[in-house]
Amino acid sequence: MKILLDQTACIGCGVCTQVSPEIFVLDAEAGVARLLQEETDDPTAKEAENSCPVGCIRVE
Ligand code: SF4
């Protein structure tokens, strides 16, 4: 699966980093999430997509 993260829409809530810590990390300086991997077969990526309150994660 390919993971896309729209950092311009991210509000830095950290939910994705809790649901899927191998893939998402919070960039404290920027105040937004960033990706540790852009391609994965980790199913938590989909959970993060479904959990993001602003819908800025896309997994395809
Ligand atoms: S769950 Fe969404 S809004 Fe929250 S930090 Fe992750 S990408 Fe950003």
Give structural notes.
- By secondary structure, the protein is an alpha+beta fold.
- It has one domain: Alpha-Beta Plaits.
- 22% of the residues lie in helices and 23% in strands.
- It has helices at 15-19, 44-51, and strands spanning 3-5, 24-27, 32-35, 57-59.
- A two-stranded antiparallel sheet has the order 1-4. Strands 2-3 form a two-stranded antiparallel sheet.
- A hairpin with a 4-residue loop joins β2 and β3.
- The longest helix has 8 residues, at 44-51.
- The protein is globular and about 30 Å long.
- It starts with a strand and ends with a strand.
- The mean pLDDT is 97.
- Residues 5, 10-16, 24, 33, 52-54, 56-57 line the site of iron/sulfur cluster (SF4).
- Residues 5, 10-16, 24, 33, 52-54, 56-57 line the site of iron/sulfur cluster.
